[in-house]
Structure formats: C-alpha cells, structure tokens
Write a structure and sequence with these properties.
The chain contains eleven helices and no strands. With 353 residues, it is mostly helical. Helix 7 runs antiparallel to helix 11 and helix 9 packs antiparallel against helix 10. The protein is flat, with a radius of gyration of 22 Å.
C-alpha cells in the first residue's frame, strides 16, 4: 500500500530524513502482518489449524524430521475430535499437508517478533527513536505478542470438544491482527515528513474514524462467517434463501445468540454491513465532491471508494463460487488493505490540522 505524495517538492531531503528507515520498517512490518493473515486464511480454509495440538514456542520452529516424529504428531492429532469425527480417513501424507500450513503460519508469527526486535534495537542505538516514539512502538511489540497468545487460545478451543475453533476466539484473533496492522500503518504514516495539503475539519476526522470503525467491525463479522462456515450456505445474490430478508434470522433462544451462532444471521449481518459501507463511502465521496473536490489529503477518498467496490465484487464472487481458497483469501486481504487506506487517510488528516 503506497501513500500519495503530499510533501511540498524539495521540502525534505532523504539525507535529513532520519525517520525514513523507521517508516520503511513499519510499512514492512504491516506487509508481514498481512502475509501472516493470508497464510492464516489458507490455514483456516484448508482446515489445517488444529493439526498441531501443542504449543512449543522454541522447539516448535523445527518440524518433524523423521518418520517417528511424524507418527508422534499424527498420533496426537488422532486424539482430538476433528480427526475422529471428520478426518478419520486421513493417512500420514494427508496429515503432512495440513500440518504444513499450521506450522508455516506459526513460523511466520514467530518471525514477526524478530523482524520487529532487531531493527527496533538498531534504531535505538542509532538514536533514531525518541522516547515518545520508542515506547508506543514497544507497545506494538506487546500487541504482537498478545496476538500470538490469542492464536493459541483460539486453537485450544478446538482440541477437546469442538471439531473446529470457536468462532468467538477466531474473531478475537483476526480483529487483534487488524488492530496491529492499522496501528503500524498509522504510526508509519504519522511519521511522514512534509506538509499535508487540504482543509480538514472535525467533521472530516469524525467521518473518517466512523469509516475505519465500520471496516474493522466488518472484518470481525467476516471472522464469524468463516468460523461458522456460513459462506458455504445461501450462495445466491442479491437474494438470500430466496428473499431480501430471509426467514429464520432469530430462531435461537436467547435472541442474541443468533448474531454470533446462527449461520444464516451471521451471513446476513455481513452482507448488511457491506451495503452500509458502500452507501456511507458513496455519501462521503458525494459530499466531498460537493464541498470542494479531492485535492490534497482528500485524494484518499476516491481510492477508498474504488477498493470498497472491488471488495464487494470480490465478496460476491467468493460466495457464488462456493468459497474457493484464492478468492476467499483475496477477500480477506483486501479488507485489511481497505482498513489500511482508511487509517492512512485519518493519519494524513491529523497531520494537516
């Protein structure tokens, strides 16, 4: 994701910009988080997430290296409900396939810590980071560690009674990843040198914040769709189960459970939030066009509008095609990119005030 050039030409030279390596590092971290999210999506879609039934922060980096070690891992997997209920047909070669995706996902998550700590330490020694910047950045490292703990908490929910992970814990894990991603983008964008052009009011900041909140909420709703495999049902559009508002939205008791546990309701909510975001962004673009156009910082809005339309089209295609891995992962990744664009817009508006 690249930001538009908003500094006055020649105002800042690379030689005098001591924070440029820090920004590159933060954007690289955000890209790495997005890669982890993509691999996590593949892990989920291939039902690989429960293939490793233990958490070994150090020794788990090394996969099984011989037949005996593979047999031991496979035997551990055989003890959980997912194997006995759904995958008892599996042989060792089938298990190796799902093991790879979970192992790779965990490997990338571990690597994120190193990708953060090594440059962070170097920048501290180079005195590129002030105290006011170093502590918030260290807070992002803690958030990354918390995200790893959430990942194991999520996996553990599927090891004793369920045949997949809890949709509640999946939503918490994905939403935490989103918070980490947008925080990295926001800090990096806030450190950009130069002057941001354009008139910014409290109204612009409030509407931008509301857009970001809606996108994050939609990402969380998408996690519930994934956790319940809700996208595998009601694969028509624009009608759902033959109607705009289908029957059966509140068949569970108490009613609140439908919002999180009824696959029909969960998919309906996900669709509904998408429609609201499209209408809201359309209104923002119309209002900005009416009030002065898209010069300067408000040039983000047409880009956001384009990505919103692309995301909706990709979501519909994913549903109609019965959730193929490529489209589904692209849909998830594009949602994170949309959140990144929204937070970059907010960061630039704050710099313009």
């Amino acid at each position: 994701m690249t930001a538009m050039q908003d500094a006055a030409p020649g105002q800042v030279s690379y030689a005098s910009d001591r924070l440029r390596p820090v920004r590159i590092w933060l954007y690289s971290l955000a890209a790495f988080v997005l890669l982890i999210v993509v691999v996590g999506g593949i892990t989920r879609l291939t039902e690989s997430g429960l293939s490793i039934t233990s958490w070994k922060p150090l020794s788990g980096v090394i996969p099984p290296l011989n037949q005996a070690e593979w047999e031991a891992e496979f035997e551990a997997y055989k003890q959980i409900p997912q194997y006995s209920v759904l995958n008892s047909w599996m042989g060792l070669d089938d298990f190796k396939y799902i093991f790879f995706w979970e192992w790779f996902h965990r490997l990338l998550a571990r690597a994120l810590g190193l990708v953060f700590l090594v440059p962070f330490t170097i920048f501290l020694f180079q005195k590129r980071l002030s105290r006011d910047l170093a502590w918030p950045l260290f807070g992002l490292f803690v958030l990354g560690g918390f995200q790893g703990a959430l990942g194991w908490w999520m996996v553990s929910s599927g090891l004793t009674e369920l045949t997949s992970v809890s949709q509640y814990r999946l939503a918490a894990h994905l939403t935490a990843a989103c918070f980490l991603f947008i925080a990295l983008i926001y800090v990096a964008r806030s450190l950009s040198p130069g002057r941001v052009l354009g008139r910014v009011t409290g109204f612009h900041l409030a509407t931008g914040a509301l857009l970001l909140l809606a996108v994050v909420l939609q990402i969380g709703a998408g996690a519930f769709v994934a956790g319940l495999d809700a996208g595998m049902g009601y694969q028509t559009w624009p009608l759902m189960d033959g109607a705009i508002i289908p029957n059966g939205l509140f068949v569970m008791d108490p009613a609140w459970r439908n919002l999180f546990e009824n696959a029909l309701t969960v998919q309906f909510i996900h669709r509904g939030i998408a429609y609201l975001i499209v209408a809201y962004v359309g209104w923002l673009i119309w209002k900005r066009h009416k009030d002065g156009g898209f010069g300067g910082v408000h040039g983000w809005l047409p880009r956001i509008g384009f990505i919103v339309l692309l995301q909706v089209g990709l979501g519909i295609a994913t549903l109609l095609a019965s959730v193929p891995i490529g489209l589904a992962v692209g849909h998830q990744a594009l949602a994170f990119m949309l959140a990144g664009l929204a937070v970059a817009y907010i960061a630039d508006m704050r710099r313009a005030r």
